[in-house]
């Protein structure tokens, strides 16, 4: 019986624009509480099982950063662990994450054109990291991975293409993506969770965030089969067009490379194949794994 | 009398109720026992912990059994039944009417262990003995020490007259029926004890199970002598969460605990330079003891790998492969 480690990568949305703009959200949660809840969840995750491993990635509106593990800080913190009432390892984790978050937030640039978070960047980084870990696996060790995204800001459809590519990669690598969003529904996150068989949750009451996290996201696939989980809602599978990045219901699809356009164009910008402009056939734009057909509007 | 306790839960369930309550008084033991439970049990307990204490009584809120079983998929209700019985035996939760209520001490200390509470984990105070360079031990030295000590103990089983172990350890062996008194006075050998069949079985077990079996019997021997073992158990749990390679202070230990510490030192679970220097280093044997008992042969391989000599692998261009290794001993 070989050991099986379970690795969770938590991607935290640390976008300052959300927290400064309180008008749009009715949340009574402030940034400090939010961070505290995340750390408590991470602590509970590590304490839950000796085989659990954790990585934390933080993302803001212009960059991402690996908050934990951080081997250089760890060696600095371990000697100071004497007077604590927490399980030692948790104490170390808390201090490291605290320091790294402070550093990270100090480097956030305020003037950017977009207010959306770099979730896609974080997901692709996480997938590359997982890939490296898979290659470094010692024979006899089975590790299962999953990703949890805790998002606060709304989606930008500019990210659609890259995000969907990341989602398909993760589906191939058998890495479920779980999603948790504080604000309004995010169709991108919903699609990601649906495709990779993860759990999606829109948190109705941010004060209860910790409880939702602990109830739903501590366990992996095997245990989830034993639990009664929230049922799936209908997912919005509308894609974004490749030319304007707007979400569309109907459009044109290139038969060679399957890129989606909202307007009739002469050539495909992705694969440069020429279109037959005279043809009046119009296919309904559909998402990659779409089952339902949409009516022409 | 000592039955083969396959895992931690069976052992804890066999202890008297007041000992169990004492043990739950410390976050380390709650966390160790929690981690050893099956996954579904842990998930359920975690959900219970999220709920605040009842406002009227200050005790953990009881939840109706129907609600709890609705959390579980209908296909796994059997597992759930088994688990609920196990949790009752461990006194982690009690049945109040048709509700389940989590034990208050257990809940408070488990929450303390995970989220931070008021009981100090290690009873460390600003000790006057600061670890100096001389006292720092390297990891391979610790490993070497622990394997030497444990081998010494096992050697005694095989060859009792060459033993250099204490009376205490011999008592434990006799209690565990691994050794028996040699009543054959006419025999020419001067051994007071001989190994039994169970003793041979013991020698063939893997190291972690051996340590575990031995510790349980050691605790039982102490229990028979009338000592209170809850302190010792709590200390063992604390050890299992220690960071390998770091030393801890033992200044404020009671006499009984100091006694137990020396016993562990003899077995190779702890390294201490001298009795006067009040700092000790836990070894790998101790750390793996309560954490993940029912686990991995992978870590066993790691211990075993230290002893495997490197061999040779020769690949010839005529597609022949030769492997030179030592025969497994």
TrEMBL record, chain A:
Record key words, sorted: DNA damage, DNA repair, Metal-binding, Nucleus, Transcription, Transcription regulation, Zinc, Zinc-finger
Keyword Transcription regulation attached: yes
Any matching Pfam family: Tfb4
GO cellular component terms attached to this protein's record: transcription factor TFIIH core complex; transcription factor TFIIH holo complex
Gene Ontology terms, MF aspect: zinc ion binding
Listed GO biological process terms: nucleotide-excision repair; regulation of DNA-templated transcription
Subcellular location, record wording: Nucleus
Source organism, top-level taxon: Eukaryota
Subunit organization: Part of a TFIID-containing RNA polymerase II pre-initiation complex that is composed of TBP and at least GTF2A1, GTF2A2, GTF2E1, GTF2E2, GTF2F1, GTF2H2, GTF2H3, GTF2H4, GTF2H5, GTF2B, TCEA1, ERCC2, ERCC3, TAF1, TAF2, TAF3, TAF4, TAF5, TAF6, TAF7, TAF8, TAF9, TAF10, TAF11, TAF12 and TAF13. Component of the 7-subunit TFIIH core complex composed of XPB/ERCC3, XPD/ERCC2, GTF2H1, GTF2H2, GTF2H3, GTF2H4 and GTF2H5, which is active in NER.
Annotated function: Component of the general transcription and DNA repair factor IIH (TFIIH) core complex, which is involved in general and transcription-coupled nucleotide excision repair (NER) of damaged DNA and, when complexed to CAK, in RNA transcription by RNA polymerase II. In NER, TFIIH acts by opening DNA around the lesion to allow the excision of the damaged oligonucleotide and its replacement by a new DNA fragment. In transcription, TFIIH has an essential role in transcription initiation.
Family: Belongs to the TFB4 family.
Protein name: General transcription factor IIH subunit 3
Native species: Rotaria socialis
TrEMBL record, chain B:
InterPro entries (alphabetical): TFIIH_p52/Tfb2 (IPR004598)
Gene Ontology cellular-component annotations: transcription factor TFIIH core complex; transcription factor TFIIH holo complex
Keyword DNA repair: yes
Biological process according to GO: nucleotide-excision repair
Subcellular location: Nucleus
Main location per the UniProt record: nucleus
Pfam families listed in its UniProt record: Tfb2
Keyword line: DNA damage, DNA repair, Nucleus, Transcription, Transcription regulation
GO molecular function: ATPase activator activity; double-stranded DNA binding
PANTHER family reported in the protein's UniProt record: GENERAL TRANSCRIPTION FACTOR IIH SUBUNIT 4, TFIIH, POLYPEPTIDE 4
Chain's role: Component of the general transcription and DNA repair factor IIH (TFIIH) core complex which is involved in general and transcription-coupled nucleotide excision repair (NER) of damaged DNA.
Assigned protein family: Belongs to the TFB2 family.
Descriptive protein name: General transcription factor IIH subunit 4
Organism of provenance: Rotaria socialis
